[in-house]
Every structure is written in C-alpha cells, then in structure tokens.
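Hi R.,

As promised on Friday, here is the backbone we talked about, encoded as structure tokens. Could you run it through your design pipeline when you get a chance and send me back a sequence?
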C-alpha cells in the first residue's frame, strides 16, 4: 500500500491552495481561524463562492454537478480548506440528503432539489432525533398519516442543528405502527414554511443558538415529497448515516488547531517559562500529536481502499477524530488558564474589540471547549460507534 501522494495529487494540492489564497475572503478566514461564530450569511457566502468554481459537491458524481474527484482528491481538498481556515460547507444538504435523493429519489426530485442544494438556494436541516429517540432512532414517534394526496405530520424532532435558518427539513416519520419498528418508517422532505411547524431554540453550554426543537402540528406534506417507497425509510436513513460519518475525523482542522495550540502554549507562561517548555504539558501535546499522526495514516489507509461507499471503518474515524478534537480544546483551555474564563458574546459574534482581560486568542476558547463536547454525541454517539465496530468489524 503506497500512502504517498503522486505527482498529480501534489499538482492538484497546489491548484487548490492557489485558488483558496485568491478566493477565500479574509474576514471569513479570520473568523474561522480565531474561533468566532459564523452567521447564516457567512456560510451561504462561502458556499456560493465555491459553487461558482464548481467545488461545492466534492463527493457527488459529475453528472449531478459534482466534482467527480477521487477519494484522495477530496481528502486533499478538505485538508487544504482546513489549513486555510474556510467555513465548512454544511453537510445537511450536500452530504446527507443529496446522496439519498441520488440513490433513492425519483427523477423529478433529483431535477428539482439537487441544483438547489448546489447553489444553496435551500438550506437543509436534519429531522432524525426525537426526545427519547436518539441512539434508539428506530423508536421514533412522529406520525405521518396519508390523507388523499398529502401526509398529515404530527410530532416533535429535537437537536435540529441550525433549523432556525432552514428552508427544508428531511424527516424520518412513522407511517405504520403495526409492524416491526424499522419497517414502519418513511423518509419525507418538508418545506419549513408549511403552516403548523414551530422552531424553538435550545441554547447550549456556550450560550450559542445552534440547535432547536421542531414541532409539527397537523403539517400537510404533499405525497410527492416522499423519498422512495413508503415504509422503506429505515434503509435510506442508514444509507445517509454512513455518509454523515465520513468527514467527521476532521484531521485537517485538528492539524491546524494543533499549530494554534503550540502557538498559545509558547505565549503563556508557567513558573516564568513558556508553557510549551514545561515537561508535563509538552508531553501531553506530544502524545496528542502522535495520536493525530496515527489517525491521519488511518484515514489515508481507508481512502486508499476507496470502496466508493463509507463502511463501518467510518465509526473508527469518528471516535478517534472526536476524541482528538475534544482533547485539543482541553489543552487550549489549560494553556490560557484564567484568561479563558471571561465570556464576551459580542466578541464571538464578530466584534473586533473585547472588553475583558486576556488576549484575543484566549477569549473564545472556553465557549469553544464547551461547544466541542457535542462531537462525541452527535452523528451517533461514540458508544454507539463502538457497538458498530464490535459487531461489523470485530464480528463479536
Ligand atoms: C450539538 C448536537 C447537534 C445535533 N444535531 C442533530 C441534527 O441536526 N439532527 C438530528 O436528527 N439529530 C441531531 N443531534 C442528535 C444526536 O444525533 C443525538 O443526540 C445522538 O444520537 C444521541 O441521542 P440522545 O441524545 O437521545 O442520547 P441517548 O440515545 O439517550 O443516549 C444517552 C447516553 O446513553 C448511551 N447509549 C445509548 N444507547 C446505548 C447503547 N445501545 N449502548 C451503549 N451506550 C448507549 C449514549 O452513548 C449516551 O451516552 C444532535 C446532537 C447534538 C448534541
């Protein structure tokens, strides 16, 4: 197995790097590199810039407007975006619902939704989890009852990321209660402007409005918004989850954050010396760096097999990637100590001055640390990923 990049890969990396240097707006880059919060407009702006270049849908086949890149090219692109500090392309449209529409949607759905996802005309959110149905997703209770050419949807979704901005939600709904729970689920696309939908914020530990509850009260959804066959939604849902976990290792971003960590650890002092020269702290950073290097090699090994379809190894990458991301934020907070404690939301939202003690690097780090507690929960909790590994990889 040769894990080195070819000459073509390196030329591609240079092309991406040059493009990003010329096209990534500095204000967006500064927000990302400095752990500030991104607005809806920030995400949409970057999406539209990449769309103009034809580089939004790196995992889509060319026939649908994707790049048609190999897994290695996609990896290089993600690495370069992370290195440069681009905003993320939000996954809900491009990486989640789009592959499901391509695989199981009809031609009308493909023709209508896919171009709108590419151009960011529709902002999508994910309506899977419900109170009491997270890990045990198949127990979901939101009902969709057929009445003529419509479904009437009643129930509640929760933890719905950025639903406050969304135009569309893809939902798992129960269409049959008299069968095994996995066999009575359907996959519906719902316009968020439909009467009867209420979005209520959930404010997280970092006081950010990132997730929501979404309530459905007699919401009328046209039957043509059903994906595939009624009661076959569990199959489509699982297909989507495989795609959800592919980029979750986020090695590129972790590499960038490791450099940031070393920089702040060189700036902050312990016993009159730079913290990075403290043997105990330096050994923590070194062991994290070793873990990250091992993860990077594992990602490259998975990519070199390029099965075209994410398998159970995505669970392994998810666990390791999120552990490393969380550890990075822990060491950042440890490095800045009490300077991480003050909390200034206006500074996080983009104000250039902050009114509190400490430097600009330190000010966003406590909310950043708190925010990253989510990574071992979302996308299927890390305990559930371990269950998948024991069953699908170890065969236990
Ligand atoms: C920030 C954030 C954003 C999210 N965004 C979305 C979104 O946009 N759309 C959406 O649909 N969902 C979203 N989620 C929901 C997420 O998918 C669920 O939180 C997750 O699946 C866990 O479900 P739960 O919260 O109901 O916890 P539970 O399933 O109740 O789990 C509680 C604890 O028990 C453990 N556990 C449960 N079952 C088992 C088992 N069989 N074996 C071992 N341990 C187990 C879990 O690991 C966890 O530690 C988001 C969550 C967060 C935190």
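Update: got your reply. Pasting your designed sequence below so it's all in one thread:
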């Amino acid at each position: 197995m040769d894990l080195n990049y070819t000459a073509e890969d390196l030329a591609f990396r240079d092309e991406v790097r040059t493009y990003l240097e010329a096209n990534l707006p500095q204000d967006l880059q500064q927000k990302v590199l400095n752990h500030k919060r991104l607005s809806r407009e920030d995400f949409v702006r970057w999406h539209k810039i990449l769309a103009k270049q034809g580089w939004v849908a790196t995992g889509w086949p060319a026939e649908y407007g994707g790049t048609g890149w190999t897994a290695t090219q996609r990896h290089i692109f993600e690495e370069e975006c992370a290195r440069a500090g681009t905003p993320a392309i939000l996954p809900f449209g491009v990486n989640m619902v789009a592959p499901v529409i391509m695989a199981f949607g009809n031609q009308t759905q493909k023709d209508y939704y896919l171009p709108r996802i590419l151009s960011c005309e529709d902002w999508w959110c994910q309506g899977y989890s419900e109170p009491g149905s997270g890990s045990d997703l198949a127990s979901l209770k939101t009902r969709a009852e057929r009445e003529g050419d419509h479904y009437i949807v009643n129930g509640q979704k929760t933890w719905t990321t950025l639903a406050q901005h969304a135009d569309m939600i893809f939902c798992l709904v129960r269409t049959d209660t008299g069968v095994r729970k996995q066999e009575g689920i359907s996959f519906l696309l719902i316009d968020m402007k439909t009467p009867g939908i209420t979005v209520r914020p959930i404010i997280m530990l970092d006081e950010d409005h990132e997730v929501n509850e979404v309530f459905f009260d007699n919401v009328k959804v046209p039957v043509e918004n059903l994906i595939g066959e009624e009661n076959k939604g569990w199959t489509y849902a699982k297909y989507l989850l495989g795609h959800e976990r592919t980029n979750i290792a986020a090695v590129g971003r972790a590499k960038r954050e490791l450099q940031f960590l070393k920089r702040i650890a060189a700036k902050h002092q312990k016993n009159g010396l730079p913290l990075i020269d403290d043997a105990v702290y330096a050994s923590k950073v070194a062991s994290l760096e070793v873990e990250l290097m091992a993860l990077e090699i594992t990602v490259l090994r998975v990519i070199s097999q390029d099965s075209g379809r994410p398998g159970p190894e995505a669970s392994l990458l998810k666990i390791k990637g999120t552990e490393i991301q969380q550890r990075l934020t822990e060491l950042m907070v440890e490095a800045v100590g009490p300077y991480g404690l003050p909390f200034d939301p206006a500074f996080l939202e983009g104000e250039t001055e902050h009114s509190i003690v400490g430097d600009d690097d330190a000010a966003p780090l406590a909310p950043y640390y708190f925010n990253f507690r989510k990574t071992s929960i979302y996308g299927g909790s890390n305990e559930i990923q371990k269950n998948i590994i024991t069953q699908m990889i170890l065969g236990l």
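One thing I noticed while checking it: The two ends are 28 Å apart (CA to CA).

Thanks again,
M.
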